[in-house]
Amino acid sequence: MTKKIKKIKSLLQFKLMRIICKYVSKVQLKLIFSFLNYYIGGTLRRLEKNHLFLSAAGIAYSIILSVIPLVLIVFSVLGSIIDVATIEMQVNTVIDSLIPYHDSANYMKHFVLSRIPEVVKYKSLAGGIGLLGLFFTSTWLFSSMRTILNKIYKVDKSKGAFVGLMRDFGMVVLILVFILFSTYILPTVNYFIAFSKEIRLLAPLPKGTIINILIPYISLILMFIMFYLFYTFIPYVKMNYKVPFAAALWATILWEAARLMFEYYVTSFLALNQLYGTFLFFAVVMFWIFYASIVFLVGAEIGQLYRERRDARRGIIWEKE
């Protein structure tokens, strides 16, 4: 019986290869398998070697600790520059992009939006509390991210504690600038939608249709930029721009794929499980932060694999895994 199964399996593989070879040459097929083995196989091997799941748990824990101080800082800064309505619009967009489960996203939006007026009203106090908390939590978050990325990118050099602390605060400032920049994206989109009425091809489309088309792509672009900035500025190494670009590209793709799968899982299975009850929101957010941390590190590993392959073509040989 076992021999018969093996024979059938071999026959199916042979027929499948014949079908594939009709459309793809053997040389191209060999290149495809080599590409998949290098990146997928290499990533899986490094997941175990670099203990990425444990590292992702550490990053997720640091993110949870730094969320409240960072939100206070952001609202304090934005409240001094733009109006509350624009902040609320940006909060809606960010939460919809980050949290895949709609019920949890709505709960988070209600929780955050109900407190924005108070935070903006007392922005000086909120900013002071946030800055004090961020002084410690940003150090934990970006230090842990830097340690892990340095290991992934095989960086041996280290810098003093003061330099590391200044880099951490520099990353906080960079995040604030990035959030401020992304805040003005939505008004720009609204201007484009208003202007689209003058364009003959777009005029028949309803306003809501144009928004639904643009917002997901804008969210992905902003996510890509954020990943690119992290991969570029956090580790203690200067790399060719193509390396963080490749890492950010794959991290964004994996982020969107994970978001869609996670949303399907939550809506199809988790929401039907009465065991979670009122803890569903917290379960979703905690798991999603952990998954997002894994995606971030997997993107970095793919970037390093690309870096090693690119260097190998230039005669620079890295230590084998």
Describe the structure.
The protein contains 12 helices and no strands. The radius of gyration is 23 Å and the shape is globular. It has helices spanning 2-23, 26-49, 52-81, 84-98, 102-113, 116-121, 123-152, 161-183, 185-196, 207-233, 242-268, 280-313. It has one domain. α2 crosses α12 (280-313).
Number of helices: 12
Strand content: under 5%
Global shape: globular
Q: Which value, in Å, is the CA radius of gyration?
A: 23 Å
Mean pLDDT: 73
Helix content: over 70%
Number of domains: 1
Structural class: mainly alpha
Cα end-to-end separation: 40 Å
Q: Give the total of beta strands.
A: 0
SSE topology string = HHHHHHHHHHHH
Largest sheet: none
Q: Detail the poorly predicted runs.
A: none
Set down the secondary structure blueprint:
Blueprint: H1 2-23, H2 26-49, H3 52-81, H4 84-98, H5 102-113, H6 116-121, H7 123-152, H8 161-183, H9 185-196, H10 207-233, H11 242-268, H12 280-313
What is this structure, in a nutshell?
By secondary structure, the chain is an all-alpha fold. The protein is built from 12 helices and no strands.
Main traits of this protein?
12 helices, mainly alpha, 0% strand, 321 residues
